[in-house]
Amino acid sequence: MAMKNESTIQPIHPAPLGKRMVQGAGVALLLIAFFLFKSGEPNPEWGKLWMIKPLLMVPVAGAMGGAFYYFMDYLRYQGGWKKLIATVLSLIGYIFALWIGTVLGLNGTMWN
């Protein structure tokens, strides 16, 4: 009986969880920063530091979307139609997380 060499077994996750979360948070931060800085003059009722809330909430939601992508690797690893479904679900999950983070981040300021 031949033993498998553990160095030849491919891991299910091609990248660590932390890396996927940082990637998700980075994309979310770029998107919300672009949106906020192009939004024009803020309402004086919002206070001086109104941008802190969306600049924190949206990247956290993006990190959660990145984690969802990471956990879908199990299906993606199986190949075939499961890979396609996992990729589509990952994209939908990430967009949903960004949407929820944006709504929570902008609630009380731009979206009242």
End-to-end gap = 68 Å
The number of strands is 0
Instruction: Estimate the strand proportion.
Output: under 5%
Rg = 19 Å
Low-confidence stretches: none
Query: Which sheet architecture does the biggest sheet show?
Result: none
Structural class: mainly alpha
SSE topology string: HHHH
Share of helical residues: 55-70%
Average residue-wise pLDDT = 88
Our count of helices gives 4
Globular, elongated, flat, extended or rod-shaped: what is the shape?
Answer: elongated
Assembly status: single chain
Protein architecture, described:
The protein has 112 residues and is mostly helical. It has helices at 17-37, 52-71, 73-77, 81-106. It has a domain at 51-112. Helix 2 (52-71) packs antiparallel against helix 4 (81-106). It is elongated and about 60 Å long. 25% of the residues are buried. The mean pLDDT is 88.
Keywords:
single chain, 112 residues, mainly alpha, elongated
Put the structure in a nutshell.
Keywords: Membrane, Transmembrane, Transmembrane helix. The chain is mostly helical and 112 residues long.
Q: Helices and strands in order, then pairings?
A:
Blueprint: H1 17-37, H2 52-71, H3 73-77, H4 81-106
